[in-house]
Amino acid sequence: MHQLDSKAHEALATLAHCSLTCHSMALVHCLELGGEHARPQHIRLLLDCAAVCATTAELLAHKSQFHTQMAALCVGICETCGENCEKLGQMEDCVSVCRRCAEHCREISRSGHAAALNQGATHAPSS
Amino acid sequence: MHQLDSKAHEALATLAHCSLTCHSMALVHCLELGGEHARPQHIRLLLDCAAVCATTAELLAHKSQFHTQMAALCVGICETCGENCEKLGQMEDCVSVCRRCAEHCREISRSGHAAALNQGATHAPSS
Amino acid sequence: MHQLDSKAHEALATLAHCSLTCHSMALVHCLELGGEHARPQHIRLLLDCAAVCATTAELLAHKSQFHTQMAALCVGICETCGENCEKLGQMEDCVSVCRRCAEHCREISRSGHAAALNQGATHAPSS
Amino acid sequence: MHQLDSKAHEALATLAHCSLTCHSMALVHCLELGGEHARPQHIRLLLDCAAVCATTAELLAHKSQFHTQMAALCVGICETCGENCEKLGQMEDCVSVCRRCAEHCREISRSGHAAALNQGATHAPSS
Domain of life, per the record (chains A, B, C, D) (predicted)? Predict the structure, then answer.
């Protein structure tokens, strides 16, 4: 991935880590703890975050013309997930990675960072 | 999936079909045709559409609290993909399924259709 | 997807339907029923089936040289999922689609069906 | 993901990195280089590797009862991808990460490493 700058690499690694952390916490930690941790809406929120982070990473990795819009959606989901995990407690791994991920995605969504910079006119939508 | 109404079922089937059609057309039809069909930005657009439709279907299938936002993003991607495929030609399968998919997603994004109706207060975010 | 024969189309539709059914049943039906249905290993098995069916569909849709191996793995997972769902009860949608999906995948894994037939020497691994 | 040991964490990070590297190289580097790099079977092989690594990571992250079988399939795909990329040249990032990923997956497939160790009898298939 030598064509992505170091900021984009960091974002990709964080997105991938956030996706797998939320997935693992939902299906191992939370389901086994039970109680509030195993409530349907908590498990679904974690899996939303896992799925959307994975797709955002994919779009960013191939410099999709939609990566800033996808990153903007990812900000909201990571923030909601991080906040819910913090309120619930015993979810420290998710809280910290969701926050870092939201920050990366916010920066990407604002600046059209990384892909857009490298991409230039040649990859712009053909409109 | 008996808890989803028939509109949601139809949307899920269309999203899945759109995802696999764009994926297949990109990696078999277009790459083998070569020329304009194999241009990086065309292949990437088809794979954006494939990835985002698959994730939208997943969120809709589990009645995610974010499914309307995801569907709204999916509208724009399906429309862009359908339009580009139409301009290029020899992409009829994509053109028709992308349009149907954009319509389903537009309806979902407007009405909070399906999931929201069934979901009610019990699945609302815990805020 | 006009380059895939009708058998492959049917398999793709079944794989996509199986994936979304298992996903939806796990995260809506089972988590809300609670009890045995919400046991971690049952939820994880349904999500295994959802993930592996989706990936098998993707490989089949682009005529991957690995699609028969992937389909063979998918047979075992669909069968295990279908059997577990049948023992548990109240999982009729999963039982029937997992069985049909296992049959499609078994046929694909045996015959190198669809992709291999169309693929011929030109797409064979470059060895 | 505090319930996975450090070996499993390393494997997850490598699988995620391999998936995004192959995805990015296929859709940016190779399609833009053109020629042999943009041949359909090369692009498809890279995207096979991307998809199967992502699914293997997911199954490993939630300690799926099928994670060793999935890892075994992933070994073969990573090795094939790494070898093809080496023959082709100008694919150094893929060559190195595919090799490391194949090693991690081989170890997992042999030992039932990580998940199986932590998982014990309580999560075994209910058969």
Answer: Bacteria
Model pLDDT for residues D26-84, shown as the tens digit of each residue: 999 999 999 999 999 999 999 999 999 999 999 999 999 999 999 999 999 999 999 99
Taken in order of first residue, the domains within chain C and their CATH numbers are 6-117 (1.20.1270.360)
Is A44 an interface residue toward C (CB < 8 Å)? yes
Residue in A12, A108, A67 with CA at minimum distance from that of residue B45: A67
Quickly state the pLDDT bin for B5 (edges 50, 70, 90): confident
* Distance (Å) from the alpha carbon of A87 to chain B's nearest alpha carbon: 10
Asked if C110 contacts D103 with a C-beta cutoff of 8 angstroms, the reply is no
The ranges of chain C with pLDDT < 70 are 1-3, 112-127
Q: With contact defined as beta carbons under 8 Å apart, do A12 and D20 qualify?
A: yes
**Is pLDDT of B126 > 60?**
no
Is some CB atom of chain A closer than 8 A to the CB atom of D54?
yes
Give how far D116 is from chain C: nearest CA, Å: 13
Measure the CA–CA gap between B11 and B57, rounded to whole angstroms.
Answer: 8
pLDDT recorded at residue B18: 98
User: For residue A120, how many other CB atoms are within 10 A of its CB?
Assistant: 8
Q: Which of D4, D21, D28, D32 to mutate to test the interface with A (most CBs of A within 10 A)?
A: D28
Chain D contact present for B43, CB below 8 A: yes
What residues of chain A lie within 8 A of the CB of B77, using their CB?
66
Rounded to whole angstroms, the Cα distance separating D76 from D105 reads 9
pLDDT digits 0-9 by tens, D2-22: 567 889 999 999 999 999 999
Angle at B45 between CA B43 and CA B48, to 5 degrees: 110
Mean pLDDT over A30-38 rounds to: 98
Interface subset of A 69-108, CB within 8 angstroms of D: 93
Interface-testing mutation among A43, A45, A49, with chain C (most C C-beta atoms within 10 A): A43
Q: Judge whether B35 and A39 are in contact, CB under 8 Å.
A: no
